[in-house]
Amino acid sequence: MPLCKRDSAWFDAILKNDLVFVQNNLEKYQRQYESRSKGAGIRQGWAGIHYAVELNHDQIFEALFPYEFDLLTDKPTELYCQFLDRPASLDSGSSIIHIALTTNNVKVLQYVFKQWVENPEYGDLAGVKNDSGQSGLLVCPVVNTDAAMLWATNERVIRNEITSVTNKDQNFVMMVAMMGRVAYAELIKDFIGEQAKLNIDVQIEQLKETIQELMESLDDEEQGWRHYGEQEADQLNYKTFAEEKQKVIDILAEVEQGFEDSDE
Questions:
Q1: Could you list the residue range(s) of the whole structural domain that residue 200 is in?
Q2: How many domains does the chain divide into?
Q3: Are residues 187 and 161 located together in one domain of the fold?
């Protein structure tokens, strides 16, 4: 239902970082969606918490979190990505995590991780996929922000999202190869070894086997990770460089060879 002019004051207050208005009107307006499509900063199909993440309005985000943490965007949009230095497309059905990864909102992820410890119900945020089938982990190599690496090295995230695939059956290894992200290739190598980058006391069982399955998997066009690694580097749109793509191929090939040697 479209918002009346009075109700639009809710979103205007969030845009202006008016914490007092938000606190005083939480019960009345929480879980509503923006119906406007025009105006500075307006994003149709967003809830208040989505704005708070994008704009880094920390106190409003924390006030809205218990009420709106599970809300997904209702329309596709474009958000400025710090690493890509351009607007990045974000499909509908995206969570606060997808937004935080794209906009490099590290504080949001740190807050979410803390909530996972205190309130297990919030753990469902790990595993949410948007309408393109992208989990947060699959977005990480694309946006390549500090927040993305923080997400990709969280134990709960890996447990919940490492096997996720897009609607085109593209998995994490394929995305890393396509984007040519050396740090993520090194992360995959770590996953089959000591798992030191996850900062955990007890290793995740079967993670090595899962990585092997991902490396052997094919997308919906019967293409594997090497196909993505051999695609031309897209420096303009994704800051992907040929030299880095080759390094990624070399690292993943080493991982693959290790699996082949162990199977003999």
A1: 168-264
A2: 2
A3: no
Find, among 52, 62, 98, the residue nearest to 78 by Cα.
98
CA 129 to chain centre: 9
* Mean per-residue pLDDT over the chain, rounded: 95
Cα(86)–Cα(78) distance, integer angstroms? 9
Same domain, 19 and 119: yes
Statement to judge: residues 187 and 243 lie in one domain: yes
CA atoms of 179 and 184, how far apart (whole Å): 10
Going by C-alpha positions, the residue among 109, 201, 180, 200 that lies closest to residue 151 is: 109
Contact 96, 49 (CB under 8 A): yes
The span from the CA of 53 to the CA of 62, in Å, is 10
CATH number at residue 25: 1.25.40.20
The predicted structure's pLDDT at residue 125? 96
Using an 8 Å Cβ cutoff, are 190 and 207 in contact?
A: no
Predicted TM-score (pTM) of this structure: 0.95
In a domain? residue 3: no
Rounded to an integer, the average pLDDT of 149-177 is 98
Q: Is residue 1 part of a domain?
A: no
